[in-house]
Design goal:
The protein is of the alpha/beta class. The chain has a single domain, classed as Rossmann fold (3-Layer(aba) Sandwich), CATH 3.40.50. It contains eight helices and eleven strands. The strands form three sheets. It has a seven-stranded mixed sheet with strand order 5-2-1-6-7-11-10, sandwiched between helices. Strand 10 and strand 11 form a beta hairpin. The chain is globular.
Length: about 200
Amino acid sequence: MSAKKVLVLLAEGFEEVEAVTPVDYLRRAGIQVTAAAVGKTRGEGLLVKGSHDIQIAADTTLESLAAEGKLDAAFWDGVVVPGGLPGADNLAASKETGAFLKAMAAAGKLVCAICASPARVLAPLGLLAGKKFTCYPGEEAKVLAADSPGAQWKEDRVVVDGAVITSRGAGTAGEFSCAIVAALVSEDAAEKLRGRLLLCC
C-alpha cells in the first residue's frame, strides 16, 4: 500500500508552529508531506517567511505543482492549512488555493485547518457549512458571518467532522497533527506517535 500524500500550504505570514508540527509528525508516521509556497512564482525561490520572521524552505510552489499537473485532488489524500496572520489572509486571497481546497472537499479528501484558517480560509469557501468546527478564540464570529449555514463552533482543542479537521492554535498543533495521522493512517499509529513524542493529551 502506497504512502498517503499530504500538501501543506505556506503563505507569507504563516504561523510557524502550525506548519512545521504537521510536517514533522506526519512524516514520522510515514505520510509523504509536500510543503508548497503559495503566491510565489517558480523564479522567486522557495523561502517563505512566517509570522515570527522564521523563514522556512518549501519543497515546491503551488504554481509548480499546477504546471506539473499535480494540483489535482486525485493526487492528494489531504491538505493542511496553517493559520497565522497575515498568512491565513494571504491564503484566502489566493484563487488557486481556494479552487484546490474546494476540489479536495468535493472529492471527500481530508481538509485540515488550524487557528485563524478555519474562519478566514475555509468558511468563505463554504467548507464549514453544516460542520462542527473550532478555531482561534474570537475567529468563530467570522464563520457565522460567512456562507456557512449549519456550522457549529466547538470549544474543543481539535474537532473532527467527517473529512474536515480543525484546531485552535499553535498550542494544539501536536493534537491536530495526531488527529490527521489517525484519520489517514490509523488511531493506533496516532497513539504510538503520541507515546514516542511524550504528548500529554
